[in-house]
């Protein structure tokens, strides 16, 4: 559990999230087939980055979005349906430069808009609520900026990676593309121009599990409390003509290297322990 949550998040909160996450896992065959270690790290967690914990988003989203994906045949189809349809329910839309003021689902709903970070958190939580593993990904600065000072707000960007059954695909939040996942304005460029191992110019995916590497927060560069995985090479190696699992080998290898072995289990209380692991 993140240090910031140890004094404010209690067992009742964790069990509530765990029970709803397990309910979603049982609702669809594609959700039930998600590997347990992926479920623990990318479905069960109640937070993506450093956004506030405000509303009970898992209850709200499971109730509103569960029926929306009930007839989906796969994780990717379900994720596409969400990214196509959830924004119109509340009239949500993109407005730049809203982080960190508007990041959590509650803040986004109250404002009616958010920048890429807030919308990405919203979509990742929507996916998690119905059993789709999802995580926020992004870069603190595109290489094309050519700025190296941590004192400046860079041209950062965040998006969502979705587990597609064998690896990680990606999509822009509130940027549904009829061509499917892995078709975005930032791929192939500028994504392929990023630098693996660079704090400011790599592409990172957020993790709940500790990885030994921080996910850089462009709005709080001194905060290294959010674990991350450097997935830059997966984008560099990916072919421009995407298949749904084109990132699978490279991204899965990076995730496996960062992930600790997780114990299996089925009860809500047991799953809640996955949230509480330091």
Report on the architecture of this protein.
The chain has a single domain, classed as C8orf32 fold (Roll), CATH 3.10.620. Helix content is 36%, strand content 10%. It is built from 10 helices and 7 strands. β4 and β5 form a beta hairpin. The radius of gyration is 17 Å and the shape is globular.
SSE diagram, text form:
Blueprint: H1 11-27, H2 29-32, H3 36-42, H4 57-65, H5 75-90, E1 93-94, H6 105-111, E2 113-114, H7 116-129, E3 134-139, E4 157-163, E5 168-171, E6 204-206, E7 228-230, H8 232-237, H9 248-258, H10 268-276
Parallel strand pairs: 1-2
Antiparallel strand pairs: 3-4, 3-6, 4-5, 6-7
- Name the strands of the widest sheet in spatial order: 5-4-3-6-7
Terminal residue distance: 5 Å
Query: Strand pairing plus helix content: what structural class?
Result: alpha+beta
Number of distinct helices: 10
Let me know the number of strands. Answer: 7
CATH level-two architecture? Roll
In this structure, how is the largest beta sheet organized?
5 strands, antiparallel
Low-confidence stretches: 242-265
Oligomer: single chain
Summarize the structure.
The protein is an alpha+beta fold.
List the keywords.
278 residues; alpha+beta; C8orf32 fold; 5-stranded antiparallel beta sheet; two-stranded parallel ribbon; 7 strands; globular; Transglutaminase-like domain-containing protein; Papain-like_cys_pep_sf; Transglutaminase-like
């Amino acid at each position: 559990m993140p240090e910031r949550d140890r004094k404010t998040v209690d067992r009742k909160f964790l069990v509530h999230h765990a029970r709803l996450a397990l309910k979603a896992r049982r609702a669809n065959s594609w959700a039930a087939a998600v590997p347990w270690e992926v479920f623990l790290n990318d479905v069960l967690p109640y937070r993506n980055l450093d956004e506030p914990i405000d509303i009970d988003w898992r209850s709200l989203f499971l109730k509103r979005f569960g029926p929306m994906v009930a007839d989906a045949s796969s994780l990717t189809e379900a994720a596409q349906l969400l990214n196509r349809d959830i924004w119109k329910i509340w009239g949500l839309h993109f407005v730049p430069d809203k982080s960190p003021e508007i990041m959590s689902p509650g803040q986004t709903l109250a404002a009616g808009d958010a920048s890429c970070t807030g919308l990405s958190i919203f979509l990742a939580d929507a996916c998690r609520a119905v059993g789709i593993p999802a995580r926020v990904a992004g870069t603190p600065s595109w290489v094309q900026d050519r700025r190296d000072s941590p004192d400046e707000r860079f041209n950062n960007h965040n998006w969502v990676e979705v587990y597609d059954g064998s690896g990680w695909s990606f999509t822009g939040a509130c940027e549904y593309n009829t061509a499917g996942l892995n078709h975005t304005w930032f791929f192939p460029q500028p994504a392929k121009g990023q630098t693996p191992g660079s704090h400011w110019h790599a592409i990172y995916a957020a993790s709940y599990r500790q990885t030994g590497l921080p996910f850089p927060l462009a709005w709080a560069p001194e905060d290294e409390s959010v674990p991350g995985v450097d997935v830059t090479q997966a984008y560099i190696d990916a072919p421009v003509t995407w298949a749904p699992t084109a990132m699978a080998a490279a991204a899965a290898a990076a995730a496996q290297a960062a992930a600790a072995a997780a114990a299996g289990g089925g009860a809500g209380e047991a799953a809640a322990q996955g949230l509480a692991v330091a």
